[in-house]
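User: Hi! I'm working on a homework problem where we have to compare a predicted structure to a textbook description. Could you give me the structure for the chain below?
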Amino acid sequence: MQNIYQYLFQEREATLNIATAPLISREGDRIGRLIILDDVTDRAELERRLIQADKLSSIGLLAAGVAHEVNTPLAVISTYAQMLAKQISGDEQKAPLLEKIARQTFRASEIVNSLLNFSRTSATEYVPVDLNKVVRETLSLVEHQFAQVSMKTDLSLDDKIASVKGSPGKLQQVFLNLFLNARDAMESGGTLSIETRQVNGSVRVSVRDTGAGIAPENLARIFDPFFTTKGAKKGTGLGLSVSYGIVREHGGDITVQSQRGRGTQFLLTFPVAAQAAAPAAPVRTDAPRVASAVATVRTESPSVPSVIVAKSDRLIQ
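Assistant: Happy to help. Predicted structure tokens:
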């Protein structure tokens, strides 16, 4: 019988398939047990990402249909509300009511547009993009908001990183969402650290804040549409899901690490422009992690010897 367990090795979580079987001699006597450790951490992570991508794809199709149907009545409501507001602009009782209708209609329209951005699959013209420039331009848009909550920024941008192939506007939307989320997480002040560097043919951007952090039970859901931990009227829950779709559209990846009370870090990885169309490198198994797992296993009975076999994920056909 085969089961999956999780252990913490070398300050990292690993997922192992652990199988046990008795060792039988030619005479039929039980002389020990065989313990097989199969490191499937990379495979489990890949399965999680595939499930996430499939879920977002299904929700995207649904969102596109809903957004299309809702946009038409919203436009009608907004038009007539504005026409009535002009006719009774001097009425102190009715004019504010129509203004509220128009304002909430615009808010609903913004949510619909976010849905369309999340589900849009139309082709985008990609050009070489300097991520350092995108980061600096995006920060200039939110400097005033950061100052209001006593936020500081710590930039560590590598000027030697290569360009990535993408859409400057869409990439700016990703960083804007991350920066605004950091601001909301540090309402009493803090530091937003942004770092760029190039590693093995890819450009990595780290966005780290010193805010309240994300609860462990919420980490797996933060990229889901409409999921938000913010209070009422503070967010639609679409910012990170839209950002996830944009990053994946650029052939990149986005991951998150967070601890309650110790802040949150988003790590974005993009292929450089010259290698944007190159196939992804095969997943490499972490051999030292398996070796550490071998030393952790204990037998139930000291009198029965055990043979431990650690095999890598790459041996599985």
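For your comparison, note the following. The chain has two domains: 1-122+285-317, 127-275. The mean pLDDT is 76. Good luck with the assignment!
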